[in-house]
Specification:
Layout lengths: L9 H6 L8 E2 L4 H5 L1 H14 L1 H9 L8 H7 L3 H25 L1 E4 L3 E6 L5 E6 L3 E8 L1 H5 L2 E8 L6 E7 H16 L1 H8 L25 H17 L14 E2 L2 H9 L2 H18 L4 H12 L1 H10 L4 E5 L2 E6 L4 E6 L4 E8 L9 E7 L15 E6 L1 H11 L9 H9 L7 E2 L16 E5 L2 E6 L4 E7 L5 E5 L2 H6 L1 E7 L8 E6 H21 L24
Antiparallel strand pairs: 1-2, 2-3, 3-4, 5-6, 5-11, 6-7, 8-9, 9-10, 10-11, 12-13, 12-18, 13-14, 15-16, 16-17, 17-18, 19-20, 20-21
């Protein structure tokens, strides 16, 4: 259950004044941070035009003419040039100021709204009951200013709301307050008459919560500001007090690097190298000119993926699963309970000797920011061993991934078949000669497990409370063999819960049981309002089916 008022952090208490339903402005440095790339580009253009003058100033190089400044000086246009420069600066500063003044946000009891635009006004609204996650992103330039982006992921196409930028501590506090509102805990507190914590005015910083300390001398204030920025850069991405240590899953750098080497891209590179060597040895030197530059550039793939995945951590917090990563630019996303529609545990063939696995998820919305190593945010665990998988499953499907079901999960990951799963009949070997024994499913309470793949192992876990629909279909060969295929429909994502070559009668039975269980699970599910209701187990008793 979400934390009560007495358990709020200092950042959450300071941020409560921004959840009063009134309109507030963003960090004053927002225009500079949002246009930072443009500013750097303009600066580079100016420097490139002044390069001769700069070189001449430092090393005394001869003047060959053609310098724009010389032309302005020779024609007597200094005044006009200074006036034009002043007009451009005033226009830029005025535009930045108006952009900041017109860009406001407010947080009410049921939505987060953002208004922006000078000539063309836009307003975006994110309903709290449709929030799928909240991501706090700190680009390296924004970290210098002590700022961060708050990306609120909402179910639907292009429905996200982004607050860019806020003070770093304010972003953390607002994430906690918005999640508390979405959880229903504040509504429950109001209904019970318990109140909602201490007034925000006690110790809350003024403005955007980013002002430097006013006590002491100016030197002390500057020193304090520098110390805070340094501490923010050195601080761990996940606050040690935000989650119990036993729930934190981290990826060792050696394993991360090994997983990158043992990837499909490495196989592709090796094939290219072999082709290049064969071509060079048979007199086709032109292949070196065509392929070698791209081959050298492929090294950046490994460097980028490795550096952007450093400090990767997954942890359970009172308001959901928190995933953080990054060295210079960091990202820290919280996925509230009840937002994960499907989970897949998979193992590529090259990872099998090391016992490594990957976990992917389906959610109804995705952050605008990329995940670790530029991958989609749907990759929950880029690489981990069996213990890491068990701990992560305990975070994303806590009602199912318990000690009671540990054996069935292990069987779904590694078993060759003929166990507690309902498997394919022997005649399925005609169309699935290698994987028919491993193919199978198990229905346990409000969760269904689908196991498939003998070369690339896959185990899909679907909470039936999130199921959209179920489909049974038969091809002509399936009809001849008395088989059928099953497909479970969830939200769009990388997980494809499907199962082929199941006995026709078993498929019909599965359809009926899943349909009935999904209705009951959806009616009794309260995980989307995790703060208003105590945790509860599914109402339906276990419906585990015996193996065939």
């Amino acid at each position: 259950m979400s934390s009560g008022p007495a358990d709020l952090t200092a950042a959450e208490r300071a941020a409560e004044r921004f959840t009063d339903g009134e309109w507030h402005r963003l960090h004053p440095a927002t225009p500079l941070l949002r246009g930072g790339i443009v500013f750097i580009a303009v600066l580079g253009f100016v420097l490139s035009n002044l390069r001769e003058r700069i070189v001449s100033f430092f090393v005394g190089a001869p003047d060959f003419g053609g310098d724009p400044l010389d032309e302005i000086y020779n024609r007597g246009w200094e005044g006009w040039a200074l006036l034009a420069l002043a007009i451009v600066l005033v226009a830029c500063i005025g535009g930045f100021y108006l952009s900041w003044r017109m860009h406001t946000f407010r947080i009410t009891g049921d939505a987060v709204e953002v208004r922006s635009g000078i000539l063309f006004r836009t307003q975006r609204k994110a309903r709290l009951d449709r929030i799928q996650g909240i991501n706090v992103v700190r680009p390296v330039l924004a970290r210098i200013f002590g700022a961060a982006k708050l990306d609120i992921t909402v179910a639907g196409h292009d429905a996200n709301v982004q607050l860019a930028y806020l003070g770093s501590l304010l972003a953390d506090g607002l994430r906690g307050d918005v999640l508390r509102l979405a959880s229903g805990v504040k509504a429950a507190e109001r209904a019970s008459g318990s109140g909602v914590g201490a007034p925000a005015g006690n110790g809350a910083p003024a403005g955007n919560g980013n002002g430097a300390a006013v006590n002491g001398t100016r030197t002390a204030a500057v020193s304090d500001l520098v110390n805070r920025r340094v501490n923010e850069f050195l601080a761990p991405e996940l606050d040690p007090n935000a989650a119990p240590p036993q729930s934190v899953v981290k990826i060792p750098p050696v394993r991360l690097f090994g997983s990158l080497l043992l990837s499909g891209f490495t196989v592709f590179v090796l094939v290219v190298v072999v082709v290049l060597v064969i071509g060079a040895s048979t007199g086709r030197e032109w292949l070196l000119l065509v392929v070698l530059p791209g081959l050298i550039g492929s090294a950046s793939f490994y460097v980028n993926r490795f550096t952007k995945s450093l400090r990767y951590s997954i942890a359970g917090t009172p308001d959901g699963v928190r995933v953080g990563f990054g060295l210079l630019s960091t990202s820290n996303e919280t996925l509230p309970p009840g937002r994960i529609h499907a989970v897949e545990v998979l193992q590529p063939l090259l990872w099998r000797p090391f016992g490594w696995w990957q976990i992917r998820i389906d959610t109804a919305g995705h952050s605008r920011e990329k995940g670790a190593a530029g991958q989609a945010n749907t990759t929950m665990l880029p690489v981990g061993d069996a213990q890491d998988v068990a701990r992560v499953l305990g975070l994303v499907v806590p009602e199912f991934a318990t000690d009671e079901h540990r054996a069935i999960i292990a069987a779904g990951m590694t078993s060759r078949g003929r166990d507690a799963f309902v498997g394919s009949p022997r005649r399925a070997a005609w169309i699935r000669p290698f994987s028919w024994q491993r193919t199978g499913y198990s229905l346990i309470g409000g969760v269904i497990l689908l196991r498939r793949g003998v070369v690339w192992r896959s185990l899909s876990i679907v909470p039936l409370a999130r199921l959209q629909s179920l489909e049974l279909y038969q091809g002509p060969v399936d009809r001849m063999l008395g088989l059928a295929s099953t497909r479970l429909h969830t939200v769009s994502g990388p997980v494809r819960p499907r199962l082929a070559a199941i006995d026709r009668d078993q498929s019909v039975s599965l359809f009926e049981k899943v349909a009935a269980t999904a209705i009951v699970s959806a009616r009794t599910d309260t995980s989307h309002r995790w703060g208003a209701f105590p945790p509860s187990r599914p109402a339906e008793p276990d419906a585990r089916e015996a193996g065939s």
